[in-house]
Amino acid sequence: MIPIYNCREDYLRETLRSVLCQDPGIAEMQIEVLDNCSTVGAPEALVREIGGGRIEYHRQPVNVGIVGNFNACITRACGQWVHILHGDDTVRPDFYSRARKGVVAHPRLVPRSAGRSIWTRMDAPD
């Protein structure tokens, strides 16, 4: 789930590409951009261009604020896990496959975010 508001087009493009290159398919992962009524740019056109029909796009009818848009991400999410990825962030290569392996191996594990990076035991700094 990718909440955005007036996100720079180059950032959103990079974000979407970083997710799509790891896409296990629609049965395994929902990819959706939730636009908080942006007033600049053309995010819907960019999502359609990059996503090729794979990425859903939802535009809020009015600006609901940051928290409202994040809550909408959670409400609209259909999967067992929810990853809220900001429109100006990217995911590292193999992020989703590594996260899945960790959760499957340790079902009680609660994945955590460390600022703008997600660390796994294999690549965490000492």
Structure description:
Helices cover 35% and strands 9% of the residues. It is built from four helices and three strands; from the N terminus they run E-H-E-H-E-H-H. The chain has helices at residues 9-20, 43-51, 65-76, 95-105, and strands at residues 2-4, 32-35, 56-59. Strands 1-2-3 form a three-stranded parallel beta sheet, sandwiched between helices. Helix 1 runs parallel beside helix 2 (43-51). It is globular. It starts with a strand and ends in a 21-residue tail after the last helix.
Brief rundown of the structure:
The protein has four helices and three strands, in the order E-H-E-H-E-H-H. With 126 residues, the protein is an alpha/beta fold.
**Strand numbers in spatial order across the main sheet:** 1-2-3
Number of E-state strands: 3
> What number is the mean pLDDT?
87
Question: What's the helix count?
Answer: 4
Q: Which of globular, elongated, flat, extended, rod-shaped describes the shape?
A: globular
Query: Biggest sheet: strands, sense, closure?
Result: 3 strands, parallel
Share in helix: 25-40%
Helices and strands, with pairings:
Elements: E1 2-4, H1 9-20, E2 32-35, H2 43-51, E3 56-59, H3 65-76, H4 95-105
Parallel strand pairs: 1-2, 2-3
Could you name the key traits of this structure?
globular, disordered C terminus, single chain, 3-stranded parallel beta sheet, alpha/beta, 126 residues
